[in-house]
Amino acid sequence: MKIVFVHRHGPGQFVHLACHLANAGWQVSFLCEAMNVQLPGIRVLRQRATPPPPATPFPQYHHQIGMQAATTLDSLVAQEGPPDIVYGHIGWGGMMFARDVLRKTPLIGYCEHYYHAEGRDVGFDPTETVTLAKRTQLRLRNNAQLSSLETIDAGISPTAWQKAAFPQSFHNKIGICHDGIDIHRCRPDDKAELILPDGRVVRQGDPVITYVARDLEPYRGFPQFMRAAAKLSRQNPEVTFVVAGGDGISYGSPRSDGKKWRDAMMSETGMDPSRIAFLGQIPHDQLIRLFQISSAHVYLTYPFVLSWSVLEAMACGTPVIASDTGPCRDIIRHGKNGLMCVFWDEDQLAATMAEALAHPERLREIRKLSRRTITQNFALQQCLERQTGLIERMAKR
After folding, report:
1. Nearest-CA neighbor of 196 among 276, 285, 296?
2. What pLDDT is stored for residue 49 in this prediction?
3. Same domain assignment for residues 162 and 202
4. 85-111: per-residue pLDDT in tens?
5. Which domain covers residue 69, as residue numbers?
6. From CA 81, how far away is CA 17, in angstroms rounded?
7. Which residues have CB under 8 Å from 308's CB, separation 6+?
8. What's the CA gap between 32 and 29, in Å, rounded?
């Protein structure tokens, strides 16, 4: 059986599924502009990178990506016939014209995020003004997804909250299945330890608060975390904060003054540099150790896509302090398998972190239920079986 994954920057969310299918004997190909991780036994079909907006208007941008993907698929079909199935991310336009090349091949779309001018990430910041230009831009960004949704046979969204963003008329096409969390790698380990950049070693039981994001920025609540951490550091001379994440911008916009958010927040809060360790972007095994030694892990997010990191932290039995926003409400029940705070309430976040450090015995049941949430609903093998079952049924049909 032959499958082609379509993604701008592979392997993305398809990494586990692609490896699983390749190990099962499938011929697996990635159609992408760049492959961030080289996977053994998996072929890469590269397409030319398209300059992102604002250099290129959104309709033209998505159209170019879609046409390049279609041209590559057409060449592939001419050389070796059509694949048995195509599974692609619908967010950037790569699936827009797949049906025009593959008239009978089953198409599955990965439905990650549908844009709204209100009620989700845009306008969540009370200081943000959602202009007419912004609203029309969001509608244009959704055009590629709407075009793809019309032609795909099925869609998969990782969480119920993310699926709910898509138009109701397409809900019957979209199932819910997460990419999966490796619960055997992400597990509690009371012997774990982590070496900080200054040479200090921290272990489970040490007063350590952790924070993780791909990049340290407002979409993941980095300013709110830093303000709360600064408050707590003045009250508790023992606590150490350990932060993993880069200094770029994954979502939203850069600061107007050109500063990195890390530097800006250290300056604003006056945080003692000896109380906080910035690890940058770290390897996955080190990230798991970070979760395993954490007394409490802070995960804040706009109403946006859910990060793998919070699920991996929960799989490690880490008590999570999450923002009371839609993506987190999907998985966390306050006082049961985690703790929740109002995103903008830095005093509440500081108090919740302080309580977690002062009374670790109260978190024992939360640790157990946190991991159970992941093992019962997000375990990798379970998710792979569901995805593979759908793919095999559609390919045979």
Report:
1. 276
2. 79
3. no
4. 999 999 999 999 999 999 999 999 999
5. 2-180+379-396
6. 23
7. 179, 181
8. 10
